[in-house]
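User: Okay, second chain of the day. Same drill as before: sequence in, structure tokens out.
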Amino acid sequence: MTATINPEKSVLVAKEFLSPKVTKYVLSAPDIARRRKPGQFVIVRAHADSERIPLTIADADADKGTITLIVQEVGKSTAEMAHLLRVGEKVADLVGPLGTPTHIEKWGKVLAVGGGIGIAPLHPIAQALRAAGNEVIGILGARSKDLFIMEAEMRKACDRVRIVTDDGSYGEKGLVTDAIRAETEAGGKADLCVAIGPLVMMKFVSALTKQLGIPTLVSLNPVMIDGTGMCGGCRVTVGGETKFVCVDGPEFNGHLVDFEELARRQRFYVPQEKSRYDEFLRRHDHEPKDCRLLRMVDAAKAQEAK
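Assistant: Same drill. Structure tokens below.
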């Protein structure tokens, strides 16, 4: 694990709204861009009075010295980033790369399963797995077509891609578990599955792959404060043992994760999170959000920065 704090160079150089409440951020961070490996994350504090939040690195360009983050707006801190952080501004601090990198080797046939925002952290892992000589089959799911992200990037990173939506508005109608069954029936059992997405998705994917006999990695994102294993806020139970996601993970054997315990821990601060988020929206209700004008301004600033 390597940690770098470089606020002088951590500037937002580009910003793009990908789908409702999902935003792409490109930050200048030369040291992190050079050192990061698939599966690792950073902790960002957007403004001086913002909380620190863990965000997985979706992509990086070592030559340009930038990292890419794909962030879903779910609470006050992510809302501040989406609505208040402008292109050309510095973030208060940026720490990373953190976490244990994904173990990459030639497994054979690998299912890269991404649900919703989980497609973003899956992307660099799929790239690395394919570069190692694996046959990578992407299985991507979302509730509907308008919530899909990074399809083009995943098609480049994978040998083949299956797409499913809950409502059938794009690809096949169904869940990622349906696509895993279909892929297994059509092409045989995979040698590895990497699943990243909502907790409930990873839980059911892991239950299915256990039945099918496919080793499975999941990437967890619990409440995290310091990112160094000292606070204990991100502890999870894996195989009956306590692990800390920030240093032992974020990836674990999905067949051993206690998903029920983790789900209970994830719900612990939901009332407070919702209250702060609602307060933020009320306070900034007069400000335009995700509008065409702001997108044009951000795009112009990004072009000037090149």
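Residues 199-212 form the longest helix (14 residues).

User: Thanks, on to the next one.
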